[in-house]
Amino acid sequence: MFPDLTQHPDYLSAQSLAWCNQLAANTGKYVYPWNGICEGIAAEDILTEKLSSIVRGKVLDVGCGHGEYADRWATFAEEVVGYDMTEGFILTANQNRQPNVRYVVGRTQDGLPFPDNYFDIAYTKKGPTSWYREGNRIVRPGGDVLLFHPGDGNGEGGEMGFYFPGLFGPPTVGTPILDKIQERLETSGFTDIQLWMLKETVWIPTPQDILAMVCFGQSDRFSEFARATCYSGIAAQFEKHASEKGIKTTGFYYMIQAKAS
Ligand SMILES: C[S@@+](CC[C@H](N)C(=O)[O-])C[C@H]1O[C@@H](n2cnc3c(N)ncnc32)[C@H](O)[C@@H]1O
User: Fold this and answer.
1) Does the pLDDT at position 54 exceed 70?
2) How far is the CA of 63 from the centre of ligand 1 (A)?
3) pTM to 2 decimals?
4) Domains with residue ranges and CATH for the chain
5) What integer pLDDT is reported at residue 76 of this predicted model?
6) Which of 3, 64, 234, 246 fits as disulfide partner to 203, beta carbons 3.0 to 4.6 Å?
7) What is the pLDDT of residue 155?
8) Does the beta carbon of 85 lie inside 6 Å of ligand 1?
9) From CA 178, how far away is CA 253, in angstroms rounded?
10) Is the pLDDT of residue 78 over 90?
């Protein structure tokens, strides 16, 4: 029904460095360009509530994007540090930062450039999983770690693949994201590990929002191609599956709380 858009010459794999750089060059921010209406409690609100109850001292946000979320902790912490590989996001973050907030550009694969036991808390909101062991080094023993990652069965492989086959991927087999998280937790050195699976319902109100999802972070040329070749199919599938609120989607997340040792 839909062309394989991953074959388009401009296609960039979502969340790759090239894709993040392109998104940052175009908008300066990691913000979804589509509307979604959450029914009930949003998973991110559960993270925020949990963080609100533990934020203190020196705080690290790993994969902080354009810094909007890290910045909100400035009044509750002595120091907030945001760490991210995408220079364009950090550029935006530095334009809006409060005095006790600073940002550092780098990739977690190269380690975290901070002294041992420096932080009281480290967290990630939808950032990488490749820093847990380093996290245990830079958070003081007994300090808190909070990890929030998109889960298995999300848009790419779940309902969206069913409603818009070919445009979003087929369901994933097993739980590859959870498996990777657990593998990394096992060697992290963290203790008192608690893991929650969070689920939220989000209504996507229009076919334009579905197209915006498909084009997120891609080039103008890609987006024009996607509109020309996919929009009528998206509108037809939308008509078929939507209720008056739009298309119902389920978002899955893993949230992990642990202590550094
Ligand atoms: C999904 S975005 C989330 C951004 C922000 N935390 C938020 O919730 O809006 C993931 C962020 O992690 C950053 N990132 C991904 N892999 C990284 C890595 N290995 N090292 C440092 N930053 C990374 C990306 O540049 C991007 O800003």
Assistant:
1) yes
2) 3
3) 0.96
4) 5-259 (3.40.50.150)
5) 97
6) 246
7) 56
8) yes
9) 10
10) yes
